[in-house]
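Propose amino acids for all 135 sites.
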């Protein structure tokens, strides 16, 4: 497959990138390096260094190359900061993501996997913490 990956310089995205490469797929990364690290992207991989809301730049990429799927991992993730500054998070995680999806849709890229949030599941009780709680 040919995959368009956002947030490939981040924690989750860079691991997904390695997995994609191990499985022999082709990939192009979009990341503005706002929290990511360029060194996590192998040199041979094309990096589009821009915000996901950049319709002009991403539109050009989608005109020139055909992708099977978008994997979207570009977002802000700090829970505490999101409570202090919800607007910053709404703009990036909601508005910018919608803009990206609209750009993809316009160029007929309609298969999307969206890693929505790390904060959906609360604090799971695993065997170690269960043991601690019972002591
Ligand atoms: N870390 C986790 O345990 C976890 C678990 C489940 C889901 N997620 C979700 O995965 C996504 C990524 O999380 P992470 O932990 O990898 O964060 P991260 O900060 O390490 O990575 C985010 C990447 O996206 C880039 N980015 C952010 N906004 C951008 C924008 N507007 N345009 C272009 N690039 C942008 C950053 O530069 C960075 O490389 C988030 O949506 C998060 O909620 C994370």
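Proposal:
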């Amino acid at each position: 497959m040919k995959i368009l990956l956002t947030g490939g310089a981040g924690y989750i995205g860079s691991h997904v990138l390695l997995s994609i490469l191990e499985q022999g797929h082709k990939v192009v990364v979009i990341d503005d390096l706002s929290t990511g690290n360029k060194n996590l992207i192998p040199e041979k991989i094309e990096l589009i260094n821009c915000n996901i809301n950049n319709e002009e730049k991403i539109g050009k990429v989608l005109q020139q190359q055909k992708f099977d799927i978008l994997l979207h991992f570009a977002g802000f993730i700090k829970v505490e900061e999101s409570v202090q500054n919800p607007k910053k998070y709404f703009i990036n995680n909601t508005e910018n993501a919608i803009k990206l999806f609209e750009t993809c849709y316009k160029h007929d890229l309609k298969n999307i996997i969206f890693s929505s949030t790390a904060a959906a599941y609360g604090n799971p009780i695993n065997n170690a913490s269960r043991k601690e709680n019972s002591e």
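The CA atoms of residues 52 and 97 lie 7 Å apart. The chain has a mean pLDDT of 93.
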